[in-house]
Amino acid sequence: MHAQLALLGGKPLRTKGYPVHATTGEEEKKAVLAVLERAILSEFEGTNNQYFLGGEQVKALEGEWAEKFGVRYAVSFNSATSALFAAVGACAVGPGDEVLITPFTMSATATAILAFNGIPVFADVELDHYNLDPAGLEERITARSRAIFVTHIFGHPAAMGPIMDLAKKHGLRVIEDAAQSPGALYNGKLSGTIGAIGVYSLNCNKVIQCGEGGIAVTDDDDLAQRLRLIRNHGEAVIAAGMAVGSLVNMIGGNYRMTEIEAAIAREQLRKLDDLTQRRRELVSYLNERLRGIPGLGLPGARPDSTHVYYRYALKIDREVIPIDAPLFVKALNAEGLDFYVSYMKPLYLQPLYQRRIGYGDKGCPFSCPFYRGEVSYERGICPQAEELEKMVISTEIVRPPQTFADMEEIARGVEKVLAEKDQLLKYAATEGM
Ligand SMILES: Cc1ncc(COP(=O)(O)O)c(C=O)c1O
After folding, report:
1. Which DSSP category does 202 fall into?
2. Residue 213 CA, closest ligand 1 atom number
3. For the residues 37-50, what does the mean pLDDT come to?
4. 216 in Cβ contact with 75 (< 8 Å)
5. At what angle do helices 325-334 and 421-431 cross, to 10 degrees?
6. How many whole angstroms separate alpha carbon 358 and alpha carbon 352?
7. Is the CB of 214 under 6 A from ligand 1?
8. Mutate to test the pocket of ligand 1, among 81, 113, 152 (most ligand atoms within 8 A of CB)
9. Measured between alpha carbons, how far is 125 from 104 in angstroms, rounded to an integer?
10. Which of 201, 195, 133 shows the shortest CA–CA distance to 164?
11. pLDDT digit string (tens) for 329-365?
12. If both were cysteines, with which of 1, 226, 408, 417 could 90 make a disulfide (CB 3.0 to 4.6 Å apart)?
């Protein structure tokens, strides 16, 4: 029995939208009301006094986060983007310094480097979990390299063992963008707690959230102090008499979290394990339904790691399934299903890198006289990352409040598109896709 694809005028599988990603409940409502009762919505001051480190909710959140993640310091921010900026600043990256980075990440990971006039040097990803490939990393290290920036994309840890070994060998700091992977383990260690600094996001799409927010963690006294200074007008505080070891990157800003966000984040932290478990159950159902389809690679964890499934990614073996990811996604979207092509275009293909325009219109920071290298952003520098656009499709709806029935619908959508691939290929030929 043939079913007409919705893309070609057939009936879509799903006609209603997806419900809001609501991770909050009565506990968060109570916590917010308690903050409102107290009527102190932020207790930070950007001066050298006892309020430099924030209010009671912020401090409590940082203490609880540090305990849960087994680190000495957790420093809260108003977003992971702010925390990433502060992390790069704290690691003393400056004009002319190169930072090795995956191109398969969100733009903020790389712009944090540019914010301190550093130069992102992209290295390729591995095709199993889409993270930085240790194999191609060493050849990109130069005398100008200062740090390695790792993202645990989709909630699965990068191969931190070999990456840390390389960093040690070359005297580089490792910063982990763990925005998508709170709770994911690598060799029994939590992602984000392996390098010098790790950063988590609490934005509204993440596994746990407080609307907007971020947390940086570290075991290093000096890095913790520098993170806090950059969060809260470093230069102003130093002018007001706060002692500091180095003035490098102390420009700082207002990257502070409010008391309401911190109160919500505290409740969310208590729910992290349950919310992650629910994602795993949904993924397990979906994987079982799709297992055995020739040419379809399912997501899962490497034996040394665990996955928190921030996104669910399917890999298409185009030797077996002759449909490129954009066409597959178009057909699934027409069925009413939430899917995206891959994730982000490799970052170096974005106009910022292609046209080398960051600050002003003179090519800074790429043309900075302190930069003596010749970084390339040509198409082809990371062939595997470029390939992902044709072979990976992903969705973020493997999360509460979705149910097994929603997973069943996704499975039926994928099966329908694959069963009718001849219709789809004909369509693509007429559309010139
Ligand atoms: C990998 C990664 N890094 C950084 C960020 C930035 O997080 P935030 O929105 O909290 O600034 C995100 C958010 O989507 C992300 O997925």
Report:
1. -
2. 10
3. 93
4. yes
5. 110
6. 6
7. yes
8. 81
9. 7
10. 195
11. 999 999 999 999 988 899 999 999 999 998 888 999 9
12. 226
Tokens for 339, please give them: 């899917």
d(CA 374, CA 275): 45
81 CB less than 6 Å from ligand 1? yes
Q: What is the mean pLDDT of residues 18-33?
A: 96
Amino acid at 161: G
Note the pLDDT tens digit of each residue in 377-410.
999 999 999 999 999 999 999 999 999 999 999 9
Q: Per CATH, the architecture of 26-268 is what?
A: 3-Layer(aba) Sandwich (3.40)
Residue position matching structure tokens 């598109």: 417
Long-range CB contact pairs, 167-170, < 8 A, 24+: 167/195, 170/138, 170/141, 170/145
Which run of H or E residues covers position 39?
none
- Model confidence pLDDT, tens digit, residues 187-211: 999 999 999 999 999 999 999 999 9
User: What is the pLDDT, as a whole number, of residue 243?
Assistant: 80
Q: Does the beta carbon of 105 lie inside 6 Å of ligand 1?
A: yes
The pLDDT, as a whole number, for residue 343 is 82
Above pLDDT 70, what percent of the chain?
100
